[in-house]
């Protein structure tokens, strides 16, 4: 049996802007998201997915995946995701393209587990990764 090192998942964070006049309806569409769309997100390989809404319509999203390019390609080819994104597109301002494909990516500059591991010369434990 080959002992392969654990692969660190990609942590992806992005920003979108929601039309402030449509925030309540946007929230309602996510409370809850349709089951078939939830299944597509999971099938794409995204997990630990969250959306955070700030005043004025600033939306921050976060998820983890083992292969973000593959996850993006899966959702780009999914008729279920295409229908959902077409339905969601009118909620966003300053967006050119599908929300799931055109969101502004944010650059990670700090991650506790990674820095703890680097400072001790070890690797982050599952508990440290889960705490972040």
From TrEMBL:
Task: Note the Pfam families from the entry.
Answer: rhaM (PF05336)
Q: Which residues form a coiled coil?
A: none
Q: Which GO terms describe its biological process?
A: rhamnose catabolic process
The Swiss-Prot or TrEMBL record annotates one GO molecular function as:
racemase and epimerase activity, acting on carbohydrates and derivatives
Q: Which domain of life is it from?
A: Bacteria
Q: What is this protein called?
A: L-rhamnose 1-epimerase
Species annotation: Microbacterium aurantiacum
Organism placement in taxonomy: Bacteria, Bacillati, Actinomycetota, Actinomycetes, Micrococcales
């Amino acid at each position: 049996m080959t002992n392969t090192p654990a692969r660190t998942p990609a942590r992806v964070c992005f920003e979108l802007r929601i039309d402030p006049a449509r925030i309540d309806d946007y929230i309602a569409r996510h409370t809850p998201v349709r089951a078939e769309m939830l299944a597509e997100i999971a099938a794409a390989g995204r997990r630990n997915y969250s959306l955070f809404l700030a005043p004025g319509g600033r939306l921050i999203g976060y998820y983890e995946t083992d292969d973000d390019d593959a996850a993006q390609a899966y959702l780009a080819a999914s008729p279920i995701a295409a229908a959902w994104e077409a339905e969601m597109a009118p909620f966003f301002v300053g967006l050119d393209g599908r929300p799931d494909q055109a969101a502004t990516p944010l650059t990670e500059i700090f991650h506790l587990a990674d820095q703890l591991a680097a400072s001790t010369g070890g690797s982050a434990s599952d508990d440290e990764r889960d705490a972040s």
